[in-house]
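ugh ok fine here u go
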Amino acid sequence: MPWSNQGGGPWGTGGGGAGGKGPWGTGPQQSGPNPPDLEEFLRRGQDKLRSVLPGGSLGGKGLSLFVLAAIVIWGLSGFFRVDPDELGVVLRFGKYVRDAKPGLNYHLPYPVESVLTPKVTRVNRIDIGMRLVEDLRRGTTLRDVPEESLMLTGDENIVDVDFSVFWLVKPDGAGDYLFNIQQPEGTVKAVAESAMREIVGRSKIEPILTGERQKIETAVHDLMQSTLDHYGAGIQITQVQLQKVDPPAQVIDSFRDVQAARADQERAQNEAQTYANKVVPEAMGRAAQVFQNADAYKSQTVAEAKGATSRFLQVYEQYKKAPDVTRQRLYLETMERLFGGTDKIIVDPGASSGVVPYLPLDQLMRRQPAASQTPPQTGGSR
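structure:
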């Protein structure tokens, strides 16, 4: 034979080198049942027939029957089964020709056609920045991987990001998954880490640590999916989940002090704004009151001045008609206004007797209010 009976081909088992990947160590890896080695099968069949048949040799008719049986068995070797969570990818001389649905299927026997059965419905998970370590004493523990999780933010801060990526093979992308990428898990991991670093590099540290986790997850998911679609990887990203977002452990205490100082600053600003919201409206109200009082005083003064002017003009018109009478009336009104609230004694300078008569108006005015306050006497003594 031109090559070893145990190899099944010039490069090893299944016609591929390095574990059945091909002569250059690349290509799809056989994930389904290995096809039988036809030459090895024929050789063993011949040995068994020689040991069973008398004389240890075959006649012409026996050899024909043996060849026919071998052909039938070789033809039946093309049947294969695809599990419910798998998709069969049929290759003809190493080239993709069609997909095989779950169940019992058939392809031309090896080496004409072969089949690969990747699991297309299983959701795979890749953790970045952390590893689950199995310990017999402690059980499952989480180990941090800082070379994957430490990232630089847009405001030149360092943040420690641990996240998980969930992915599966697209229903119509099994061929791309098998032939366009060599290491699917490594490709997904590299794309995930690159996408997360890009999104974090465009963001500031404070939103990353507080309220934009969902936004970052969505952005990384979209960027990963577009990158893998550009590669033609046949992979669908189902979810990106942030596990831990913290400052580096070496500076976490200082970072918490900074966060506390920022919280105090925001609280002081809020208190100042509250005080301003209280004082400014009060000041504006007082200013509006002063303006209104000034307008009222202005209106009152102008009205009084206009009234005095009108009264003066009316008096002047009457004065022009009868100057003497008006002058006398003005004199009497002025004297009444001047002496209305003072004590007065009237003396007659023209009296001829020695006793000067006078009228004590001030005393009369004081007696009159006192008499009006004394109650009248009712009845009498007997």
